[in-house]
Amino acid sequence: MRPISDLLQEASHQAVDSRRLFHGRGCLYPGYEQVTVDLFAPVLWVTFFKAPEDADFEARVIRELAEIAEVHALAALLVQRRYLPDAPAECVWGELPNTVWACRGQAKFTIQLGGRQNTGFFLDMEPGRGWLEQRAEGKRVLNLFSYTCAFSVVAQMAGAVSVVNVDMSRGALNQGRENHRLNHLPTDSIRFLQENILKSWGRIRRPGPYDIAIIDPPSFQRGSFVAAQDYRKLVRRLPEFMAAGGDVLLCLNAPELGEDFLQALVSEECPDCYFVERLTPSPDFPDKDPNQQLKLMHFRYQP
C-alpha cells in the first residue's frame, strides 16, 4: 500500500484532483484484489468488495491507511464494505468534513460518501471527460444515461452551445443541476430530461441533431438496461439524432464484453459510423486484462 503515500506526496491535499490511489481490482497486487483506495481531498475512501479470508486483513489495511492519512494531514478515513447489505460506510479515523466534493481542476462535483454504492462521480471516466473537453466548444452535446451530469459540466465549461442530459433517475438529475450551480454555470442552454431512454426517442431527437453524443449505460440493471441485449437498440438510433460528421463516445463497463462487442454492434446496426479509436484507459486504473477495463470507444457518424 506504500504507493499511496508516494502519490499523496506529489501534491498538497488542499488542491488536488480527485483520483484513485490504489486499484487492487485490476489484479496486479496479489492479495489486494478486493481493495480500492480513492482520494476525495481531504478524505481517503477505502472500499472492500469481498469479505476477507484473513480476519485481520481489513484491520491491517485500515491501520496503514490511517498512518498515511495522518502523515499527509488528511481529515478522515472512510471505509465502505460493498459485500455487506446496503454497502455501509463508516469513518474509522479522523473527522468527516461537513461537505466533501470530487474535484477536477477548477470544477467541483457533489458526491455522497456512504449510503449508496456509488459516490456520484466516476473516477475511471476521466479519459472520457478529457476527450469531451477537447472538442465541446461550439457543439451541441447529447449526454445519454447522464447520471449526475459530470459530462454536462465539463462540456459547458469547455464552451458547448447546448447540452441535453437524459436519465431515468430524478435524484441523479437534481444532483446534476446542483453540479451546474456549484460551478456557477447557467442552465439556460442545458436540459435535464427524466426519461426511459429506450422509450422516449421523440423527446431526445427534438433538440438535435447533435454534434457529440456520449452514451454511458449501465452494463446490467435489471428491468432497465442489459448491455448485451439493449446496447444495439441505442446504436441503431444514431442516424436519427446525430449530425453528419458528429462524434460518438460509446462507453461500456462490462468486463465480460470486450471492445469487439461494440465494434460488431456498430458495424451491424449503424454502418455509417466508423471507428476512430479506443481511448487510453486512466493510468489510475491499471488492469491485468485490458478487456476488463472500462471501454471508451470513439466513433464518427459520416453518412
Automatic annotation (TrEMBL):
One of its GO biological process terms is: rRNA processing
Q: Does the keyword Oxidoreductase apply?
A: no
Occurrences of domain S-adenosylmethionine-dependent methyltransferase (ranges): 19-300
Show the GO MF annotations. Answer: methyltransferase activity
Query: Is-annotated flag, keyword Transferase?
Result: yes
The cross-references to InterPro entries, in alphabetical order and at most eight, read: SAM-dep_methyl-trfase (IPR019614), SAM-dependent_MTases_sf (IPR029063)
Q: Keyword set for this entry?
A: Methyltransferase, rRNA processing, S-adenosyl-L-methionine, Transferase
Which superkingdom is the protein from? Bacteria
State the protein's name: Methyltransferase
* Organism for this UniProt entry: Pseudomaricurvus hydrocarbonicus
